[in-house]
Amino acid sequence: MADFGGNAEFGSQRAERAVERTLGTLRALDTASVQAPDRPLTLEDLYKQQRMRMVRLAILLVDDPATAEDVVQEAFTGLYRNWSGLRDARAALGYLRTAVVNGSRSVLRRRKTAREYQPPHQADARSAESLAMLSAEHQAVVAALGHLPRRQREVLVLRYYGDLSEAEIAEATGVSRGTVKSTASRALEALQKHMRLH
């Protein structure tokens, strides 16, 4: 590992030069392998020319080759979906680069969230035995909740188990208060129908 200690200004200049050399070398290697086709650029051409460059970019951002591959694959998938709307090859490359950066940011946010997550205290968690002691009606409600779509289930659980207001649920789920209200209404209807059928 390089020593960037000593004078802070000198150390930062050395670090900057080292980064420039390293990334410049990688850029030169990647650029040397790119040959412009003698016809309009296709998505396949772009994939062949830029895939490893984009993977390297993602590795530099997320520091994990497997995750970087996933980020790049998602970026190319998005590019494929939007290919017909792009102006030219430069626009496609810009789209791809932005998609890789945004995908990498998402990965890093998820990592940060996972690192910061503190599981709730489990001492009062319901055991299978306590659920078994619920009345048949309560068991049916718990089972029916499991069949609801994610958002409907979240809204009902936050409202009736978490005792949150519509505003608090909206903030927790990232939707409007109106959406919380309509989702809760639809969820209750779906829950009722499910329980009636079973």
Automatic annotation (TrEMBL):
The keyword Cell division does not apply. Residues 139-191 form the RNA polymerase sigma factor 70 region 4 type domain. Keywords: DNA-binding, Sigma factor, Transcription, Transcription regulation. It comes from the Bacteria. InterPro entries: RNA_pol_sigma-70-like, RNA_pol_sigma-70_dom, RNA_pol_sigma-E_actinobac, RNA_pol_sigma70_r2, RNA_pol_sigma70_r4_t2, RNA_pol_sigma_r2, RNA_pol_sigma_r3/r4-like, WH-like_DNA-bd_sf. The keyword Secreted does not apply. Residues 46-112 form the RNA polymerase sigma-70 region domain. It holds the Pfam family Sigma70_r4_2. Belongs to the sigma-70 factor family. ECF subfamily. This is SigE family RNA polymerase sigma factor. The lineage of its organism: Bacteria, Bacillati, Actinomycetota, Actinomycetes, Pseudonocardiales.
